[in-house]
Design brief:
Layout lengths: L2 E8 L7 E7 L6 E10 L2 H7 L9 E2 L3 E9 L11 E4 L9 H4 L17 E2 L6 E2 L9 E5 L3 E3 L6 H4 L5 H12 L7 E5 L3 H12 L4 E6 L2 H9 L4 E4 L5 H8 L7 E4 L4 H10 L5 E4 L13 H7 L2 E4 L7 H13 L11 E3 L4 H10 L5 E4 L1
The structure holds zinc ion (ZN) (2 copies).
One zinc ion (ZN) binds next to helix 2.
């Protein structure tokens, strides 16, 4: 029987989000209903509300979540009722051309639930990143559920589902940072701070945090950054060179995703160095560079989708590292809020005062 629960919905472009009654169908083949325990507030949720992703309103927001499997559809074998899971938005298919070539982190045909959740009047909802977890329960594909240690705090574990994984993975999987590398991370919110932690885990000898906000530089320091550059007062490229013996870092990760920050990443890296774009640009942004600079600088320019992660490999690993005291995952949780406080949390995120607000259900 379909069930009704509460969910945070963006009804129209730019309008404040609101808590609505949403209707979940029984899970179909390969589908799972998850009782959400916690879901982090991410910039992407705000982008949906602002119409920056697409126009498929109304959106059911929320996508950095952990919870317990509530009901499973026919043929589900990947998880069982009662499993504690972190939700992911790239459930790899195993059959597309990327998967078949052994590069599933690029999967071009990722899975989501095929049935739709709706408003009470039957209007179909578009779940954010195929998840929609600012809700008491949500409907996803079984592959979107990754089992992790059930003793982990859901508020922290859920953050692996998006921003933390993206940042950590940009350093560890995409760059990838090697032992002895010098690394800079531009933009030290949730994604950038996770990149700092990932770079240290990967063996960087020096990790330089760059931001315009002093609070974020302090957070990056808490995650182990060895140096900081205040981009509101300092010349970022010159300062990064100065801090690395005049050469520039081996790896520069742009966790902001604007033309000016990507230019800093492109220019500041050492000869043959790597620039990684993990911050998500908006469609109007362009980046122009003389081709001779691309050639002359050498090295690599990479983008990082979801940290080039494999949820089944990386989520349990990061929970284990956290529980061993080797990765301060819980430090990303700035505050715990209720479902009806998401709109206010957007304001605090925009203002820069929090790493992550987490809705706890
Ligand atoms: Zn695939
Ligand atoms: Zn996100």
């Amino acid at each position: 029987m379909p069930q009704e629960v509460r969910g945070v919905v963006a009804l129209a472009k730019g309008e404040p989000v609101c808590v609505e009654t949403i209707v979940l169908p029984d899970p179909g083949p390969g589908e799972v209903i998850v009782r959400v325990q916690a879901c982090g507030v991410c910039h992407t949720d705000l982008h949906y509300r602002e119409g920056g992703i697409n126009d498929e309103f109304p959106f059911l927001l929320g996508h950095e979540a952990a919870g317990v499997v509530d009901t499973v559809g026919e043929g589900v074998t990947h998880v069982a009722v009662g499993d504690f899971v972190v939700l992911n938005w790239r459930a790899v298919c195993g059959r597309c051309r990327a998967c078949r070539r052994g590069r599933p982190w690029y999967c071009f045909d990722t899975h989501n639930a095929t049935q739709k959740m709706t408003l009470e009047d039957g209007t179909e909802l578009t779940p954010a990143l195929g998840i929609g977890a600012f809700a008491d329960k949500t409907l996803v594909h079984e592959g979107q559920c990754t089992k992790v240690d059930p003793t982990a705090d859901p508020a922290a574990a859920g953050l692996l589902g998006c921003g933390v994984m993206a940042g950590w993975g940009a350093a560890v999987n995409t760059a990838p940072v090697r032992q002895g590398d010098t690394v800079a991370v531009i933009g030290c919110g949730g994604v950038g701070s996770a990149a700092v932690a990932g770079a240290i885990y990967a063996g960087a000898r020096q990790v330089i945090a760059v931001d315009v906000d002093e609070r974020k530089l302090t957070w990056a320091g808490d995650f182990g950054a060895s140096d900081t550059v205040d981009a509101s007062t300092e010349d970022v490229v010159a300062r990064l060179r100065e801090l690395t013996g005049g050469f520039g870092p081996d790896v520069v990760i742009d966790a902001v995703g604007r033309p000016e920050t990507f230019r800093q990443a492109f220019e500041a890296r050492d000869l043959a160095g790597t620039a990684v774009l993990v911050g998500v640009p908006n469609p109007s942004m362009t980046f122009e560079i003389p081709l001779v600079e691309v050639f002359g600088h050498g090295g690599q320019i990479k983008s990082s989708w979801y940290g080039d992660c494999l949820p089944e490999r990386d989520f349990p690993l990061l929970v284990d590292l956290w529980q061993q005291g080797r990765f301060a995952l819980d430090r990303f949780v700035s505050e715990r809020i209720r479902l009806d406080e998401v709109e206010a949390a957007f304001d605090r995120m925009h203002e820069g005062g929090v790493l992550r607000s987490v809705v706890v259900l």
